[in-house]
Amino acid sequence: MAKRTMSAWALAFLLLAGAWAQAPPTHEHSFAGAEHWAGILDDPARDSWQRPHEVIQALALAPDAVVADIGAGTGYFTVRIAHMTPGGRVYAVDIEPDMIQHLAVRARLEKLQNVTPLLGEPNDPMLPDPVDLALLVDTYHHIGDREAYFRRLKGHLKPAGEVAIIDFNADSPIGPPRAERLTATNVKKEMAQAGYSLAAEHTFLPNQYFLVFRP
């Protein structure tokens, strides 16, 4: 049964990859139709390789942490972080209005008063307050002018704030088309050019790299 579930997930993700292939390889993606994407992005089968609780534990967030989930989509990480930071705030940022509407409904239904959906811009997350952490899961490769974006993001971080980037390895069996993927080495070089240093690198995810940076 587990094998069949993973196969179904892989097929769904290939469909998602097809949508990525049709969109520009920048943050200006178009994921309209949140209910459709919820069936893919929030599929429980994803948990086996995304390991969300291990990811959040590795981030070592304080209960009152302020987090920006940039490229939040339907809220896969947003809701989990919200439960683990009950005294904090999670800004669920996406540039797709339909996703923001979906996030607002989901936060209300799940009674997550510490979740604030935010409509960002392709070149700015438009955060209203400084955050302890900016988390980008499978989003980095969509951003256009990454150096300018992450230089701007510094102004949205608290003095000890961090940026965590999780994205697909070049040889991952799922994810966007290989031509659109960036290696961990590429990400480290680009973030250094934007004025960040590598603070941590976690290797427990089977399909993705997991890098944490500080200005």
Question: In a few lines, what is going on in this structure?
Answer:
This protein is of the alpha/beta class and 215 residues long. Helix content is 38%, strand content 22%. Strands 3-2-1-4-5-7-6 form a 7-stranded mixed beta sheet.
List the defining traits of the structure above.
globular, alpha/beta, 8 helices, about 220 residues
Characterise this structure.
The protein has helices at residues 2-22, 34-41, 47-50, 52-59, 76-84, 97-109, 146-154, 184-193, and strands at residues 66-70, 89-94, 115-119, 131-137, 157-168, 197-202, 208-214. With 215 residues, it is an alpha/beta fold. Strand 4, helix 7 and strand 5 (157-168) form a beta-alpha-beta unit. The protein starts with a helix and ends with a strand.
Count of helical stretches: 8
**Main sheet: strands, sense, barrel:** 7 strands, mixed
| Class by alpha and beta content | alpha/beta
Low-confidence stretches: 1-32
Question: How do the helices and strands follow one another from N- to C-terminus?
Answer: HHHHEHEHEEHEHEE
**Gyration radius, to the nearest Å?**
16 Å
Mean pLDDT: 85
Helix content: 25-40%
Question: How does the overall form come out from the CA principal axes?
Answer: globular
Distance between the termini: 45 Å
Biggest sheet strand line-up: 3-2-1-4-5-7-6
